[in-house]
Structure formats: C-alpha cells, structure tokens
Amino acid sequence: MTTYNKTLLLLASKLGLEDEEKVLGKAAELERLLQTKTIAGNNMTDTSKIVICLDLATNICGVDLDLKTAIKYSGLKQPTYINSRKIVENLLEISSNKLTISALCLTLQCSKVQVLAEEILEEFKKKSKMEVDLSLPQYVCMAVYQACRINKVKISKSKMIEKSRLKPTQWAKLDTDWSKFVDDNFSSVKKKRGRRVKDNVENGNDDSEKMDTDACNNEVSTEPQIEPYEDWKRRMLEEAYKELKELQQSEKNQNMTPRRSPRKTPQKNSPCKTPNKVNGVRLLFPKDL
C-alpha cells in the first residue's frame, strides 16, 4: 500500500476523498512537483498547497469536489484561492488555457509590441536574482504592458490587471519594479524609437516639399497672375482710408447746416409778440414807456 503524507490523508478525509486512490496518488505527485518550484510573491501555506493539489487531482481524475469545502480547509479567501490555484496550474503546466504573450497581444490588439515584450521577459529572466516562472500571467501581462509603454501604445490598464490576476496594489508594486528595470535596460530602445519618429517626420516633410516643387514646375499656369500680398494690403488700406475720409466729410457737412428751432418762432396765440423795430433796430421794450 502506498504511503502518503499525513496532512494529505487528513485533508483528503475532510474533503471525502480518502477512498479515491487515484486522486490521492495524483495529488501526492503534484505536491512533490510543487515543492521543486518557486512561487514568487505568494504566501500560500503547506495546507493550502495540499488542498489545491487535491483540487487539481480531482479535476484530472474526473472526481467531484465541493469547492466551498476546499476553500474552507485551505484557509484562504475565495479570490485568493482561485488565484493561487491558477498559479499552481501554471507552475505545474497542467493548464489548458495558459496565457502567452502572443495570445495577450492578439486579445489587446497590440501585436506590434510582441517582439519587444518577449525580449523584455527574457531579459528579466536573465537579470532576476531568483528563479521565477515567467509563464505566470502577472509576468506575461507586465512584459506586454511595459512594451506598450515604451512604444506609447494605448491599452486598457484595467483589462491588463484582470488578466494578471493580481490586486491593484500588487500590480502597482510590480509595475514600479518593472518600470525601473525596463528604463535601465531598454533606454536605447526608447531613444531609437524617438529618433525614428523624428526622422520619419522630417522625411515626410522633405517628400511633401519635393512633391509641391515638382507639381509647381510641371503645372501649366492657366489662371491670371495673383497680386502680391503687400500690394494688395496697401491698395485695400488706401481704399479704406479714402472711404473713411469721404464719410467724415459728409457727416461734417450735415452738422454745418443750420436748423431752425421751433421754439424761436412765436406761436400765433403766444403772449410774446415780436419786438418793435425803429430804424431797422429791434426794440425790446415799447417806445411809449
């Protein structure tokens, strides 16, 4: 009879799997393989690892397992358990839908950064001080994210975090570390890209100027000659000044025309009469006074 780990047998009995010999054997095999792997940035306990191995073994062997009970005995919360299970699947290479750079670039419609993302991931593996599994979704997502940052390709950060299966705080910490790593090791790529964009802009301007010059040389002028701007400006100002002067003169002439006030002419029944005149001189008071 095969001897198993006591913790494995105890948890298997709690999950109702003590009589499933195939499941126990597969779970023990997965546990031994998992001990040879390094899980970076994860605080799974030995108990949670065994529960996850039993969960994966039941899935492989086609045996039913109550997920709520498994999460309960693992000591993890449901989101953490699902994330840890996915990590173990990738480490043991038993996941059928493993995330790759090419698949992620295709999903996010940024295939032009695929080569650079693969280079970043490979360089990180070389410079890393500890052994890491680069097939984990967080590393794949971060490599693509950094490649998009260098090439200034806009992608959905929320979708990237969702694909990485990390919490926003974990993603922010990983982003800080990787941004520093990429800036230190791929600065030449950023400079080269900036220079290439500048050259393309200058070449585009030169080509457009050349095309305009050729078009001007080859075109047969059928339109009348266009008046130079300075001459046109001078002519328009002179006309405007002339019209303004005529308008001012017209207003001045209108103001000089005397207008008779209606109040100066006494009314027919007004008590005020026209003063008497003596020898052509108008008297203000009657002569008899």
UniProtKB/TrEMBL annotation:
Which key words are in the record?
DNA replication, DNA-binding, Nucleus
Membrane-crossing residues? Answer: none
**Recorded GO CC terms:** nuclear origin of replication recognition complex
Q: Which residues form the ORC6 first cyclin-like domain?
A: 11-95
Ranges of Polar residues compositional bias?
A: 267-277
Comp. bias (Basic and acidic residues)? 197-213
Name all ORC6 second cyclin-like domain ranges.
Answer: 99-181
The record's subcellular locations are: Nucleus
Q: Which family does it belong to?
A: Belongs to the ORC6 family.
Name of the protein this chain belongs to: (apollo) hypothetical protein
Which species is this UniProt entry from? Parnassius apollo (Apollo butterfly)
